[in-house]
Design brief:
- The chain has 327 residues and is mainly alpha-helical.
- 64% of the residues lie in helices and 0% in strands.
Length: 327
């Protein structure tokens, strides 16, 4: 949404007095924090990236990141933002520069050559937690685009145990994208399993997805079963959904657990239709393996009214009848 309030600052950005231009920058940042944007200021924000004043450079970088988050960007900022990464001791500058670059990466605007692999790996070791988090997500976005920085893998695994939740979340996201591209290491399964109990919902979700990807490629860990089953009751709907999806893959690999059966029944009424479908599918797969629960019968009958899951519900009930659990 183009803001008239921000557009009113265009004249100030072109004022001869530096103080006026600088004030316009901070006002633009303030408006951005409130969700008010105008793409006409992008050229002026970019100019401030090379300003002598540290606060101005930092604010310009953050504001460009906020604009990119809202799909407003200028590629001409990338070179300046990358150059700012050399200011290693400047917490705000390097944090905001990596924040902006992360949002540019999410939009697919960064080329492999814009940020060197060595630079990103080094940033994973930054003493500043937000820098580590931003570097991890950039690497994750690159991996999603099938560009793997292989030398970053061990560092990403280490960051699964970082003290900062955002860093753990972004590292787990990168690792699952590495797994999607067949960069796997069975030795990290224990860390992924541990991530299922993380306080951060994003970490739990990403680790569940990653374990599903690993299982799909033939690498499983039986210790994951009970924890994934527990996540079927997670307060976060995306965690529940992806735990159920991972358990479908485990079930297809002949790895089952009675807790999965019990918790899947409760998910037949989940507000998320994808979760309901996964739960119905799990119950159908368990029934195929003659693993059934009498408490599932009533919810399954009710599920026949839900067009999203009625087919699997009917199939499961048919198998229950074939095995004498249903008259």
């Amino acid at each position: 949404m183009s803001s008239a309030k921000v557009e009113a600052l265009l004249g100030s950005f072109q004022d001869k007095k530096y103080k006026v231009r600088r004030e316009a920058l901070f006002e633009t940042a303030k408006y951005a924090s409130k969700g008010e944007f105008n793409k006409k200021v992008l050229v002026f924000l970019t100019k401030f990236l090379s300003d002598e004043d540290k606060a101005a450079r930092s604010t310009a970088a953050w504001t460009l990141g906020k604009y990119a988050q809202n799909k407003l960007y200028t590629k001409s900022a990338i070179g300046y933002l990358t150059k700012m990464l050399k200011e290693e001791g400047e917490r705000d500058i390097i944090t905001n520069a990596t924040y902006a670059l992360a949002n540019y990466a999410q939009l697919g605007l960064l080329d492999k050559g814009d940020l060197g692999s060595e630079v990103l790996v080094k940033l994973l070791n930054s003493k500043f937690e937000k820098v580590r988090a931003n570097a991890a997500i950039i690497i994750g976005f690159f991996a999603e685009e099938k560009f793997l920085i292989r030398e970053a893998f061990d560092q990403l695994v280490r960051l699964l145990e970082d003290r900062d939740g955002s860093t753990r979340r972004n590292a787990s996201y990168a690792i699952l994208n590495y797994a999607d591209q067949d960069m796997l290491d069975a030795k990290i399964l224990d860390k992924l399993v541990k991530g299922l109990t993380d306080v951060e919902a994003g970490v739990r979700m990403n680790c569940a997805i990653a374990l599903g990807v690993y299982a799909q490629k033939g690498i499983t860990d039986e210790k994951a079963l009970k924890l994934l089953a527990k996540l079927l009751k997670d307060r976060n709907e995306h965690v529940r959904e992806n735990a159920a999806e991972a358990l479908i893959i485990y079930t297809n690999k002949n790895l089952t657990d009675p807790t999965v059966l019990e918790n899947s029944v409760k998910l037949l009424k989940d507000k998320n239709k994808t979760t309901r479908k996964a739960a119905a599918r799990l119950l159908a797969l368990y029934a195929k393996k003659k693993l059934m629960h009498k408490k599932a019968i009533k919810p399954l009958k009710e599920a026949l009214k839900d067009e999203e899951i009625s087919r699997d519900a009917a199939l499961t009930l048919k198998r229950y009848k074939q095995n004498g659990l249903l008259q």
